[in-house]
Amino acid sequence: MPTAIDENGRIGQFHLDRDGRNMAVSVKSYLRQRDGNFIRVEDCVVPYGDSRYIEGAIELVVDEVLIIGLEEWDLVDQLWAYIATMVKTLSESDRCSTSFPDQSIQLTFQRQGARILVSCEVGEVTRSASARSPEFIAALRGAGQLFFRKMAELYPAHADAYRQMMKDLGS
Prior knowledge:
The chain is of the alpha+beta class.
């Protein structure tokens, strides 16, 4: 699977769809620092804030559509736990959804043949895009595994729970 850097310096895995267009699925995790700025989770060397309330964001881009981003920051470890459950549920069901931990934002995955329609409702706005199922699930699993490994390192008291979330994500 080739990778490329876009005009904004983002790295993503690109795939060709049926029409020969490039399609990217990019998933990145961020922690929110005390000053309100965000740092990529893999760049963190010290924990931020209370281990029971880890603020951060997940940036999910599908086919060049920003589904969720920094504006939708929340309790990021809980959000990742919800997404891990969604990935597990999607293997048994054609549709799953979750609300964000602390906001009225709805994230939905819906299987459509070999593709998954990913949508996010934020207030009156719904952002959605379709991705090939294997690539989408692989991108979520990879980013989730990276997130939970780093969280186990930063917050060792919760390492067992983070390891369970990695199992839920599968590989």
